[in-house]
Amino acid sequence: MEFILGALGASGAVCFTNPLEVIKTRFQLQGELKKVGNYKVHYRNFAHAIYVVAKNEGPLALQKGLLPSMGHQVFLNGTRLGIFDLAQKKKWILKSDGTVSLIKSALVGGGAGMLGGFLGSPLGMLKIHLQSFSAQSIAVGHQHNTTSTINGLLTLYRKYGVVHGLWRGATGAMVRIGVASATQLSTISLLNESLINHGVLTKDQKFLSTLICSMSGGVLMSIVMAPFDLVSTRLYNQAVDARGRGLLYSSYLECLTKTFRQEGIYGLYKGVVPCYLRLGPHVVLSMVFWDRLRLLESNVSNHFKTIQSL
Asked: Per-residue confidence at 211, pLDDT binned at 50, 70, 90?
């Protein structure tokens, strides 16, 4: 049940935040491995990007990749939120004195995130392919010409197999989600405990606590994970040879170093604003939906236990 609730919460959130993900992806691929001034800028800022996409591809283009994005959330957040919820119930993230341990919560959150990133990698890659595919006049990055979720997965498998096809770029996703998950879940747990211990909120104010903690966690998460998110996007989207091997980057480290050498620190943080504008609402909505679903599940479970005891 922990895994189902985590998956439902995140899938619900992505319906609202997917347009922001489309814009973030375009920014991260714009001017790939080129110095500032040496490429045409199709997207000047966040608002301009929304306008350009809607004008050239239609408003519905802002929801490109929604289906694989929802499926990705099922594997990703169903796993990481489910494991973390279980860890909370089993008190695996607590110190001997009963308070939240930063190290334990970060390790559990990071480990759960890496597992979720690995399981959801094929759909995560397909989502990037669909979101980056655009009208030629505003195209950035390699264009994969993927038309649908099922067709895309079958094509990847038939042409390149499992390792170099479906799970290509999984390392980038695992690092990205591991770092993000460790940051987010440990921050939220510690901040929630601190707000209650200092009398700012009570244990009964769960909705307000979830809202404040998830907003704060989203800010820190965006700053920390932005370079890892960019590397993951580029590893997924790069062109490949007949064997499914990347033509631009052969490894995670090469993508990171090439980007830094060609584009500098700005390149690694390219798209950080749309990254937060996407992650902020997504984290808040995911955590709020997740919290409400857990509360509903707890109430229903207690209700059935009461009936059985009569």
From this structure: confident
| Confidence (pLDDT) at 285 | 72
Average pLDDT over residues 74-102: 89
Q: Quote the DSSP letter at residue 45.
A: S
Q: Tell me which DSSP letter residue 141 carries.
A: S
Cα gap 107→74, rounded to integer Å? 21
> Whole-angstrom Cα distance, residue 60 to residue 65?
11
**Radius of gyration of the chain from Cα atoms?**
20
Give the model's pLDDT for residue 219: 76
Question: Taking Cα atoms as reference points, which of 6, 179, 177, 11 lies closest to residue 84?
Answer: 6
10: closest CA among 286, 295, 293, 297?
Answer: 286
Say if residues 278 and 69 touch (Cβ distance below 8 Å): no
Task: Find out whether 294 and 85 touch, Cβ atoms under 8 Å.
Answer: yes
CA distance linking residue 49 with residue 9, whole number of Å: 28
